[in-house]
Design goal:
Elements lengths: L4 H14 L14 H12 L5 E13 L5 E13 L3 E7 L5 E7 L3 E6 L5 E6 H5 L10 H7 L16 E4 L3 E9 L5 E10 L6 E7 L5 E12 L6 E10 L4 E13 L21 E4 L8
Parallel strand pairs: 6-14
Antiparallel strand pairs: 1-2, 1-13, 2-3, 3-4, 4-5, 5-6, 7-8, 8-9, 9-10, 10-11, 11-12, 12-13
Length: 287
């Protein structure tokens, strides 16, 4: 039986209004913990040398007066895992609003809206509890962007607990107090959809509260290589009220840029000055 033309028109109009149901994204069956870790590490092992990203950075920070400061900036990020980072955040007119950097020994940050203040500390003093940390700590940001390999050893105190959820395989890494009490230090949520890489990383304090959380999306290839990296990165600091969203246009490999490059030298070690400069190890002014 032929459908009257008016019913065909109504049907087409209805489909145009409500749309068609999208094809469901296929959630893959769970795999063993070892296989899940191998997939992640097979990708991270392809990270060779320095990588550079360009894109936009949006979000907000809460200043010392408790006021939320919004930002929408252009960013350029250079990463040489595990600790080397150089990230600039500039306005549309090219003025530097924020600088973040790190090498094997030191980390630093400059924020124009924070009284034109530059802060720098050392990882050694930080580990000894003698230095004040930064919420935007470069080594943690590198990990939060998914650059770190996961431990191959899954047994003993260094191995993670493993849980299969509806859309993820969750890895819980524990730390232990002097009394032997285990606490969840961080979580890695691995996607159960292709390419089965890291979708979320959660960092917790000794009380189990979320200190920092990253969400990784839009995995794409880096150049012509088999390496894939996230191009959408959202990092939250719930306790500090901070948010950073990176929308990366492109990752580029920079194989000739090593640890000795000037970008990875702390600005104050290159005699660069800022209106206010603080040594986080001592709490005193630099210079």
């Amino acid at each position: 039986m032929r459908m009257p033309k008016r019913w065909i028109a109504v049907t087409v109009l209805w489909l145009g209004v409500v749309g068609c149901d999208p094809s469901p994204v296929r959630t893959m069956p769970p795999i063993t913990l070892h296989d899940a870790i191998d997939i992640v590490n097979d990708n991270t092992v392809l990270i060779e040398g320095c990588l550079k990203a360009t894109g936009s950075a949006r979000g907000h920070v809460v200043d010392a007066q408790g006021k939320r400061q919004q930002f929408d900036l252009h960013t350029s990020v250079q990463v040489l895992s595990p600790r080397y980072m150089y990230a600039t955040f500039k306005s549309g007119l090219g003025a530097e609003e924020m600088l973040l950097g790190s090498n094997q020994q030191k980390f630093w940050m400059y924020i124009k809206r924070d009284g034109d203040t530059y802060r720098s500390g050392t990882y050694a003093s930080l580990q000894e509890g003698k230095s004040t940390s930064l919420s935007l700590r470069p080594d943690l940001l590198i990990e939060a962007m998914g650059f770190y390999a996961l431990p191959n050893t899954t047994v003993g105190t260094g191995g993670p607990l493993h849980r299969v959820a509806d859309n993820h395989q969750q890895l819980f890494f524990l730390a232990y107090t002097d009394e032997g009490q285990g606490i969840i230090q961080k979580e890695y949520w691995l996607d159960r959809q292709s390419p089965r890489l890291i979708r979320k990383i959660i960092f917790r304090d000794a009380m189990g509260r979320v200190v920092m959380q990253s969400d990784l999306d839009d995995y794409r290839s880096v150049g012509d290589s088999a390496l894939v990296l996230p191009h959408l990165v959202r990092i939250d600091w719930p306790q500090d009220g901070g948010l950073l969203e990176l929308d990366i246009r492109k990752w580029n490999s920079m194989p000739g840029r090593g640890p000795d490059h000037a970008a990875f030298v702390a600005p104050h070690d290159r005699d660069q000055t800022y209106p206010r400069m603080i040594d986080l190890d001592t709490g005193l002014s630099i210079r």
